[in-house]
Please model this.
Amino acid sequence: MGSKVRRYEGAKVRGCPEGFTLIELLIVMAIAVLLAGIGLSLYGTSVTRAKEAALKQDLFQMRKAIDEYYADKGKYPAALDALVSEKYLRAIAVDPFTGSSETWQQIPSDLDPGNPSAEPGISDVKSGSDQNGLDGTPYAEWE
Model:
């Protein structure tokens, strides 16, 4: 009936200090640095993949606009600006790797033997970047 409950709140057990040892802290910090390094490398790769996807889409849209211009007018546009002024594109896309819409490489068209009076224009466009993609091919050679 009169059993007393002993409380050991705040009592230390002899030989067991509170807190962490220096080795434990170093191990935890090493693991945190390792995980942060892995995260940063994955982040950098994902940013590059997003830029590559944007480049592929931009190239596709500009090439499609060039083809539509040729189909409608029977000639290639003289410059990329013609695609904007003729409403085939809203604006010339910014190259994700150069950060400018002025660096696109404009590939001139060949003379059309079936239409010798046609003025030469732009038949293709490529990236103006000198960098290589994650697959090792230069962005300037992407189709």
Notes: The longest strand covers residues 122-126.
